[in-house]
Design goal:
Number of helices: 3
CATH architecture: Distorted Sandwich
Number of domains: 1
Shape: globular
Helix content: under 10%
Distance between the termini: 39 Å
CATH class: Mainly Beta
């Protein structure tokens, strides 16, 4: 049996056995849906919120919203306190490139840019559901105009296990040309997630590490996972980020903000490193998106086989 889906100008045909998790693409974004419910949206073009902010904050190449199986949105975008933080995103902060210092995190500086470049693959559903995309990191301080620095591939795969969404993100970064990028020692930058704007402070948006440490105690520690959770419409929900133990400098340091709902895995907290031409900076993360509560034993059972 075949089912035909029409969504925002795209027609997709899949078998009925593949009709739960499905991946759809149009000119503005890529979506993964569970039936008719949104799981995530990846931005190929700036969102409607971008127009409400300074153009410096406009961004593509990130995921927002990210939703729980019951449909609760747990990520935030263009928050008034940090409009440069965008859902699930990757950005380096303090860098050196050809004697200049492009900054890809704090967009208000106007020195660096990260964005969607092209779609590499769409896996519509069934055995695998997800997509591969290419990002471009550009130095905006070069005299001749924007200069490519890095090309990054994201491989996104989504599954539904025990009533939770598992989002596996595989990032591969390579130099665009023959010049290296130095990631300078700094206290944040890397693979990040921004939570809802109303999850401010420990009372509304709790962050805890695998060692049971909170925002203050866990900052710049090296946990095996980090959980951010809170309530939406009186019901608990959240997300757990599980970095792969084979990532560079694993377990990586984590920046936990003392009051804002975000955290970031930062391998440069104590020492700089360089992405050299001809090499690949590779990292993998699993995000478990859940309704209700999720304890440490359950998190361990949902980790990738090589992350337990």
């Amino acid at each position: 049996m075949k089912i035909h889906f029409a969504f925002l100008g795209l027609v997709l045909t899949v078998s009925s056995l593949q009709a739960e998790l499905r991946c759809l693409e149009n000119e503005a974004f890529i979506e993964i849906r569970n039936g008719e419910s949104l799981v995530l949206r990846y931005r190929k073009q700036p969102s409607e919120e971008a127009a409400k902010n300074d153009p410096l904050y406009s961004r593509t190449g990130y995921i927002h919203p990210l939703c729980t199986p019951s449909g609760k949105v747990i990520t935030g975008d263009y928050a008034p306190d940090h409009p440069h933080q965008h859902g699930l995103f990757f950005a380096w902060t303090k860098t050196s490139f050809e004697g200049r210092a492009p900054e890809f995190w704090n967009q208000m500086q106007g020195s660096g840019r990260v964005g969607y470049a092209k779609t590499l693959a769409i896996l519509p559903g069934g055995g695998e559901c997800g997509f591969d995309v290419l990002h471009r990191f550009e130095d905006l301080t070069a005299a001749g105009g924007p200069e490519p620095v890095l090309e990054e591939t994201w491989k996104i795969r989504v599954s539904l296990v025990d009533g939770r969404y598992l989002l596996d993100l595989h990032s591969l970064q390579q130099c665009s040309g023959a010049k290296p990028l130095v990631i300078e020692k700094y206290h944040y930058g890397g693979m990040a997630i921004r939570g809802r704007a109303d999850w401010l402070g420990e009372e509304l948006g709790r962050i805890v590490t695998s060692e049971g440490k909170n925002r203050i105690e866990g900052n710049h520690t090296r946990p095996s996972w980090v959980k951010m959770s809170g309530q939406i419409d009186g019901a608990s929900c959240g997300v757990v980020a599980i970095p792969n133990p084979e990532n560079f400098r694993a377990p990586q340091w984590v920046r936990l903000h003392p009051s804002k709902p975000y955290f970031v895995f930062s391998p440069m907290v104590e020492e700089s490193f360089t992405i050299e031409p001809g090499t690949t900076y590779e990292s993998r993360f699993r995000y478990v998106v859940f309704d209700g509560e999720l304890g440490g034993e359950e998190i361990a059972s949902l980790a990738p086989a090589d992350s337990k």
